[in-house]
Amino acid sequence: MTQPTTTSSTVNPFYAARGSHLAVTTTARNHDLPPSRSRRLSANTTTQNHDLPPGYARLPLAPRNASPVPHLTSLYHFHRAGEYGDRSWPGNCGGNLIKDLLLYFRPGLVFDPMAGSGTCADVCQELGVPCVSYDIHTGFDACDPNSFPPSDTFDFIWAHPAYWRQKLYADDPRDLSRSPTLDHFLRRYGQFLRNCAAALKPGGKVAILMGDYSDRDEGFVPLTYHTKRLAFAAGLVQCCTDIIRFSHGASSSKKVYRSAFIPGLHDTCTVFEKPARRANGKEAA
């Protein structure tokens, strides 16, 4: 088995910066105008969109509660990635969400089976939380049950899998982003989730960051749905609300497309729990 790597903010919850898209608003407000004028107004506004300064969307106020991380809500905005990992790494995500989840759940031993540039390990080192991390680039296949760590080992698993082939990650054919078909991807992804379920201690948590996307052959691929379906089949239960993470810094935001589509500006973090066992060895309800 590959040798593991072991290591021992403030968010504004009310405003989320994003570019203004006034063409949509203008079109909606002018639905009663003559078609020729409505088209003219929409076209003019669309042309000017890219010259407008960023706008702000006001988010709902969160209720006060005993949470140790009050700004951690179902809508997660942090426009800076933080000083974790390497932002040039394919598929890298910022470490602030990981940090907030660890501060909330306060786990003991953490596992990152898809470590990438080491974002989770960097966060754990800052917080003084022990972390074991592997990656396909170091030869670890997270979808192989024979190479996964033993059962009932970890309190918390962080995983940011490939969004199938939206972005190719490694040259290794075992990498999920190299799956030739959606069925192949889902079979291996399901095995990965079963591996995570086995490696968690009873009551342990696994947080999966996943996004949907439109594939050139399969059309829209609801990977967030498949994540839940496969996790439930693996015996995990969802333990809190979905966390909608705004995708600041996504490479697609810098591209221009000829086709028309509704852009996805977020991915979804779902936290699952391995049910605790009763004294008789059965899972608690």
Question: How would you describe this protein?
Answer:
The structure is a single chain. With 285 residues, this protein is α/β, with parallel strands linked by helices. The protein folds into 2 domains: 5-19 and 56-273, Vaccinia Virus protein VP39 (Rossmann fold, 3-Layer(aba) Sandwich); 20-53, no CATH class. It contains 6 helices and 13 strands. Strands 1, 4, 5, 6, 7, 8, 11, 12 and 13 form a 9-stranded mixed beta sheet that branches. Helix 4 links the parallel strand 5 (110-112) and strand 6. Helix 1 packs antiparallel against helix 2 (35-48), helix 3 crosses helix 4 (119-127) and helix 5 (182-199) packs across helix 6 (223-233). The longest helix is centred in the C-terminal third of the chain and has 18 residues, at 182-199. The two termini are 36 Å apart. Residues 6-33 and 36-49 have low confidence and may be disordered.
Averaged pLDDT: 81
Distance between the termini: 36 Å
What is the N-to-C succession of helices and strands? EEHHEEHEHEEHEEEHEEE
Backbone structural class = alpha/beta
CATH level-1 class of the largest domain: Alpha Beta
Rough shape?
globular
Q: Helical residue percent?
A: 10-25%
CATH architectural arrangement of the largest domain: 3-Layer(aba) Sandwich
Q: How many beta-strand runs?
A: 13
**What is the fold named in CATH at topology level of the largest domain?**
Rossmann fold
CATH superfamily of the largest domain: Vaccinia Virus protein VP39
- What summary fits the major beta sheet? 9 strands, mixed
Low-confidence stretches: 6-33, 36-49
Percentage of β-strand residues = 15-25%
Write down the Rg.
Answer: 21 Å
Q: What's the tally of helices?
A: 6
